UniProtKB/TrEMBL annotation:
Source organism of this protein record: Rubripirellula amarantea
Residue spans crossing the bilayer: 36-61, 81-102, 122-147, 230-257, 263-283
Segments forming domain CAAX prenyl protease 2/Lysostaphin resistance protein A-like: 165-275
GO molecular function: endopeptidase activity
Name the UniProt record assigns to this protein: CAAX amino terminal protease self-immunity
GO biological process terms on file: CAAX-box protein maturation; proteolysis
Amino acid sequence: MWIRVVYQHRGQLGEVLASLVPARQRCFPFWNAGDALIMFGLMMVLAGVAQSYLLSQGVLVRQPIETDPPLSDAQTAANQYVLIAISLVVGLMALGVMLAFFRSRSDKLLDRLGLRVRRGDVVLGLKASLMVLPPVLVISGLLNLVIPYEHPVLEILAGIDSVPKLVLVFVTTAIATPLVEEFLFRTLLIGGFERLAQAMQVGDLQQWERDQGDQPWKDRFDWPVIASSFIFAIMHFGHGAAPVPLFVLALALGYLYRRTGSIVAPIVVHMVLNSLTLIVETLRVNT
């Protein structure tokens, strides 16, 4: 589908994309890129505190130094499940803290942050998955022939021996991670960069905001999507060649957010990708 569309309309790709994802009226972002840094830092601090506490309680087993005997396979697997649980809780806690923080700064919070769930956005996300994921998966597959993909979750899948463990991995990877990452990288980072771009253009941003009021805002900046996509890709460094296809994915998700002002469609695409990856890899490593 996507190959035919690109080939037939290769000279008018921008117009085709605009027709597939009509632009909606958006409010000007009231947050800045520093809020994305705050959320990321909060996640790091919470994860560090949780790990330190669980190490002190013996729930996590400390990684051995060179002179210590290595951890057993059972200890390593137990550590991995605990770390996944920490990731799940920390991500949702950080998201909740940021929403509570923003609630005092703006009304109509769900709409302004792009979190209002509408049926049309869910459908758009499913349609976008059919267009976006095939090229991303093709790029990923080709690069994996040269640089194998690596991720701790893939190692865990081979050792899953119970339904609760599988549910934990699925909920964390296919549901919570897309929600948290899309809010962080699409809402906070792109929106924050858009605010910065507008400030660079108008000079006195506070006066411009007073003049703008609650009027619909149309962004005219491309670099926020590109910059946030680059950061998103770099954050996955160390997972083989994953940053390359993930950069392409992030561009598409950023475009969806920019056109709709909502992260519901990007979340759906992200969930579909992670769910498919989990299903395929689970079948592969257990057959």
